[in-house]
Fold:
Amino acid sequence: MRNFLFAVITLLFISEFSIAQENEINNDSILKVVTVTGFSKGEKINRQSAPIAYLSPKELDKFSPHNPVMAWNTLPGVNLEQRAVSSYRVSIRGSSIRSPFGVRDVKVYWNGLPFTEANGSTALNLLSNTQMQELEVIKGPAGSLYGAGLGGVMQINNFPVSNYSPLEIQLSAGSFNQLNGGIKGQFETGKFKTFYAFDHQQNDGYRDHNSLNRQNYQLSTRYQINENNQLDLHLLYNDLFYEIPGGLNADQFAEDPTQARAGSEPQNSSIDQKTLFYGIGYTSFFNENLSQSTNAAGTYTWFQNPFILDYKEDQNREFALRHQWTYDMNLNTLEWKWDAGLEWQYADNSANNYGNVDGVKDTIRFADELNIDRKLFFLQTQIGIDKWEFTIGLSSNLLEYQVNRVVNAFAEPFQFTRNFDNELIPRAAIKYQWSDQNMTFASLSEGFSSPTLDEIRTNEGSINRNLQAERGRTYELGHKYYSRKIQFDATVFYAGLRETITTYTNPDGVVLFRNAGATNQLGTEIGINAVLYKNEESIIKNINSRTSYNFYEFTFDNYQQEEEDFSGNLLTGVPQHTFNQVFDFDITNQVNLNIHYRYVSEIPLRDDNTLFADPYHLVNLNAEYKLPIQAKIKLFGGMENLFDTTYSLGNDLNAFGGRYYQPAPGRNFYVGLNWKL
Structure:
């Protein structure tokens, strides 16, 4: 509570200081103020009454082209982990505690289309850096507008491109036999804008049995029917294969972090999947007050996963629909806005588990037919009076799982249906706009996160009939100050969660899930973008800075397992301190240098807090050189983990046999060339 009060006082002091400085700053903006979706479509980020982080295409390009990990991790409150090459795990405010693999507890949209599966999981590895050019993150519960997910919402975009070229080719190579090649472009003809992209990526990985081979094909087009109506079409095909080296214990991690877990290679532990994702978006403006947007998407995935214990083979078919109406009214000094709509997702999947004999599937163990039906209805109103704005939102959330086990080698086949209670999720927020550059907001949000299908039907095929949805309430106080040379975002929050889902492994190494009572989550997040130096007449043209810091005091409350009481312990998998500092130098008109420093404090690996992952420091470098010729050719290169730090990125929590560690790459480099027509 002392830290909470200190953070509140700090925010109020900054607010007063910012107002005092207001008259010293003109309106010629040097730092761009972006327009984001957030809780109010088409409003600038510094006027949204919610904690929102944003990563631009320019900022993403200053990091490795091979994956988005380090770029995303510069954002306050966001942590992207990579347990194996292309095996991502996203944590927003510590939400990865329940994600042994994959992305859960976070809702993801891609170019406006619902991208998260009906079961609550997101296959982020379907997207290469080309498909993830722009990232917007709403941190914390957003259920009043977007449904389930206590972690938050991510909006990922790459179309249309503002500064486009009809043809762009990029080639790069690096450590671990890394090879990337990509061709993309956008062209306009009449009322059409069309974007195309092809990416190939391969490498052997930092560890044994850790190779990757991925191809991505994208075609997107926009037809501007008239000034009030537009139609978007998207087609994405992904062919992905990567090997899974598995977790190591402390002795193995210290002896040789590049080794794979025993049994991973002989059993060909790996992921082989092919996915077709397609969608359509239609936006129309009926008049200056009323508009609507409709986005529909379909997915077909063929999936194979040989594992040490078994061999899994799935076919997933999904459909998603989101429809939203927006109405604005201006009545003298009163501004009134309404948003209402629905989102529906349906999945028809089949999942078969076989024995695994030397990496080849053997006798079938069980076969399941799975149906998932998820519905969301939402309504939100925003009322602006003078410098005040009030937001009230409410959503209704329905979820049903149906499991029909048609083949069971160990018992009788069965059917299982799980209907979760209708979750009514409210959100209320208030903001005060001190000036064009200063805003303070406070919000109260209810949230919930239902178990994913992978948590109810675990990897080895058992059914967890008792797992409950997580529920929580979050209080937030934030301040935003945006001027021509500095952008400041700070948020203090407290979240009280009930039925928190945590992970553990059984003696066979199977990841299982359980509800862990309640947790108390007190946090502070700070993000600062600043122009430190600008002089067009000198050799060094610009020095820009981006800083982020998180402080999380997350603890268990009323959590007991058998004879052990973990109440008061630090929440597993969540560091208390995370700090990022980025310096960006423009030298002459040809050279750019980007320096990134990252610090993560120790991380609890067990619920009993008897073991912690060591804190670590990382330094990453990236340099670009634009050739002084008429052709637009850019040479680039970089080095990650400059000081060869040994650390784990994506720990296995409460792991049986002490296999907590998923070693991250040591010192590694990349070089490349980019050419635009």
